[in-house]
Amino acid sequence: MITMKDIVREGHPALTKVSQEVDIPLSHEDKALLEEMIQFLKNSQNEEVAAKYNLRAGVGIAAPQLGINKKLMAIHFEDENGKLYSYGLANPKIVSHSVGKAYLAGGEGCLSVDRQVEGYVPRHARITLKATDMDNNPVNLRLKGYPSIVFQHEVDHLNGIMFYDHINKDDPFEVPDNARPIE
Ligand SMILES: O=CN(O)C[C@@H](CC1CCCC1)C(=O)N1NCCC[C@H]1C(=O)Nc1ccccn1
Ligand code: NI
């Protein structure tokens, strides 16, 4: 099972590399990795399991965080309306996005970053994302709000981008014009 010791931390080269696309149909190895990544997220959100294995709760994880530079990412969480987002995705691509921006009002963190980094992380408010899921089916998702932010955070990892790369150095809490805060 994946635990925190498997998650590489900032300074590890895998986090700033552009990852490679994977072959479709997925190899057994890549499919098994996506399954393990989803299981980690489920475990991390389960109080007993997280306490037992000292897991930090996460809603998404990308293969580079495991030192693996493949375009594989997993997302698992329920939004405020109880809608479940649970995906193991290969070769995700943001094919279109809104002009408008959005950001988490509380800022962002990362399981690969063992420190608080203050500031707003401006992202696209809405995105259309295409990918292949773990059963080799094409996925076409239109996302807004918190889910849109989560998916963008993970896609960034596959391109070697960390959340703090988006924070305005001169004014971390500067709100880009017409950007929407997500509580
Ligand atoms: O690349 C992937 N990562 O680095 C895991 C990150 C991904 C999120 C950060 C901002 C958008 C996506 C993650 O999940 N976190 N960041 C650090 C500690 C907190 C944790 C988190 O937000 N946990 C959470 C939130 C709601 C419900 C349950 N748990
Ligand atoms: Ni992260």
From TrEMBL:
UniProt-listed InterPro entries: Peptide_deformylase, Peptide_deformylase_sf
Protein name, entry field: Peptide deformylase
Residues that hold Fe cation according to the record: 110, 153, 157
Record-listed E.C. numbers: 3.5.1.88
Entry's family note: Belongs to the polypeptide deformylase family.
Cofactor: Fe(2+)
Gene label: def
Record keyword Metal-binding present: yes
Organism: Virgibacillus sediminis
UniProt GO molecular function: peptide deformylase activity
UniProt cross-references to Pfam families, sorted A to Z: Pep_deformylase
